[in-house]
Amino acid sequence: MATTNTKKPRGWRPLFGLSAIILVLFGSIFAGTLRGDATWTPKLALDLEGGTQVILQAVTANNEPVESEDIDQAIEIIRQRVDSSGFTEAEITSQGGQNIVVSLPGKPSQETLDLVRESAQMQFRPVLFFGDPTPVTAEDGQTTTPDAGDEAAVPEETASANPSDDTSAAASDEETTQNDTTDESSDPAVEPTDASDFAQVTEAVLKEFEALDCTNPENLKGGGGVADPNKTLVTCDPDGTTKYILGPMEIPGSDIAQATSGLQQTQQGVTLNNWVVNIEFNAEGTKKFDEVTTRLIGLPPADQWVLMNPPTQAPNMFAMVLDNLVISSPSVNSVISNGQAEISGDFTNESANALASQLNFGALPLTFEVQSEETISATLGSEQLEKGLVAGLIGLLLVVVYSVIQYRVLGLVTVSSLAVAAILTYLAILFLSWQQGYRLSLPGVAGVIVAIGITADSFIVYFERIRDELRDGRSLENAIEVGWERARRTIIASDTVNFLAAIVLYFLAVGGVRGFAFTLGLTTIVDLIVVFLFTHPVMKLLARTKFFAQGHRLSGFNYRSLGVDKPRYVGRGKVVGAGVKPSEQRRNADGSRMTIAQRKAAEQAEREAHLSGTVDSSRSAGADAVSGEGDK
User: Distance (Å, rounded) from C-alpha 619 to C-alpha 613?
Assistant: First the structure.
């Protein structure tokens, strides 16, 4: 009983995998278009879509050199401002170690532009009041502060004086964001005795505090201009868990000498497994901080403080405000007179480093001057994109022409592979544009164009390996397998070098070069996917066709295109070469097919005759001699 082999050729499985990848990308983007947050065209960068570019120059009040860490911290602050405004596609980079370049594609709002232009300043302010983040309605009644039993309202982290000082302090760390500054013009003139005087919390301030909703993202943006250091400040933390009323500024950030993070050490030099942030003030700051802690130590601790009605006093907390955000709000339990404070609590290595960086940034009186601000027209970008696409089409056409001339029908495999690579690259760019906010720039387009040559080079390496194996006498199927083993190593090595170069360019370069590096790395990955999941499987399938297996003159594997000018044995009783057609394979005088021994003897006789210059006459003589030998 005959059976049918229904097992599909091995080449189909990778093709199914490639199809799955394309369908997943296509399906995801299609689903995104139905929801309205994805499109079938990629987002364009500033040079193609147009927009606004602002160049900021870092300036210090005392002409101190600007460190790269300060620029990096400023970039992070500007990025937080811009992202909080809802504009998530800005490109913010450093230029020359002194400038910051902010590129805003499209039409950014005036609010976003104002946030970019503003400078950040560090301020130390006393905490007059803190409470729940939600607004107080008329039904809620009088605003109150949670009592000592409400752990959620009491900050958990603590701060102390430097171990070299025998005084210590408890503290808490809460991040906050400004809502706006208060306007006391509607209240009677208030003459506070000090910055912690609760008399500053007027009816207008309390109403503003009650109305503030720290669960509303609009109130968690920060920025909005540097708060007036001589007035109270109502603000939220960026997590939206606590809101504050802060007194006037008492210590500017410029009075910080340095801030570091590390593991906590006791007075005896024992290192504990707790991360802390150490602050050291300069001479002026040390004096001011001594006065502040001396006053705050006499106020109720944060974990025991209860707001009386009417309010009469503040907790013993002070807030560190950067860019109108309270990045830390420690409470003080003792006087810190040596200018060395230690903030401890529920810190991790990352959070302690982040706070130290923010304090160091605030310590430098760093401001930014707008060096230039220009609106870039999309018209110029469109013209450049059009020229880039024309250049890409010309390059693609040349690759196609070369492939067809060099490889005949086999060149169509190159063309189809490039088409698959183009589809994958386009879908990947669409997906990243939708999910990650990626914007395609003109250098990015250049990277895609360069990838045409890189991808075609992989195919050429593979095809030439196959042709080399055919010249050595292998059948097409064997030549494809052996050629693939050898070409694969070369392709992987080449693409690895390209990918590493793209990574180095992306992280070390600035501006448009990063766009080039990104698409170069992306297309390098696509090249590997296409070669492994499309080109090689297709070649395995084509090897099973008569057109390619028998070396048709248009297949690309014909003996003449391989440079073979003499007969050679290719297996299964077949010999190819100049002047030998497939129908004229080696046979004896009686028409029977030669044995392996007979063929080898005939080939040896032909080689000897060829050397003597009598190829034609010796061919038949050799065949007769072998035939006679076979008859014996």
Answer: 12
Give the max Cα distance, the chain: 132
pTM above 0.85, yes or no: no
Show the tokens assigned to 157: 């982290």
Picking from 252, 198, 203, 209, the residue whose alpha carbon sits closest to that of residue 227 is: 252
Provide block-wise average pLDDT over 10 residues at a time, the chain (632 residues): 46 89 94 88 82 82 71 77 67 80 79 71 87 74 42 51 47 38 47 85 88 82 72 83 89 86 85 89 92 89 66 80 78 86 84 81 70 76 79 88 88 92 94 86 88 87 89 84 92 94 85 84 94 93 88 80 57 48 54 68 71 48 40 38
Domain boundary among 549, 577, 606: 549
Number of domains in the chain: 4
Residue type (1 letter), 499: F
Q: Name the β-bridge partners of 370.
A: 56
User: Does 125 lie in the same domain as 239?
Assistant: yes
CATH of the domain at 488: 1.20.1640.10
Rounded Cα distance, 379 and 421, in Å: 29
Residues 195 and 285 in one domain: yes
How far is it, in rounded angstroms, from Cα 393 to Cα 443? 16
Residues 44, 90: Cα–Cα separation, whole Å: 12
Flag whether 567 is in a domain: no
Pair 89, 435: CB distance under 8 Å: no
For 55-173, where are the alpha helices, taking DSSP H only? 68-84, 110-117
Taking the C-alpha atoms of residue 179 and residue 610, their distance in angstroms, rounded to an integer, is 96
Full DSSP string of 271-290: EEEEEEEEEEE-HHHHHHHH
Buried b (16+ CB within 10 A) or exposed e, 147-159: eeeeeebbbebbb
Q: Give the number of other Cβ atoms within 10 Å of residue 495's Cβ.
A: 20
Domain housing 595: 586-631
SS3 512: helix
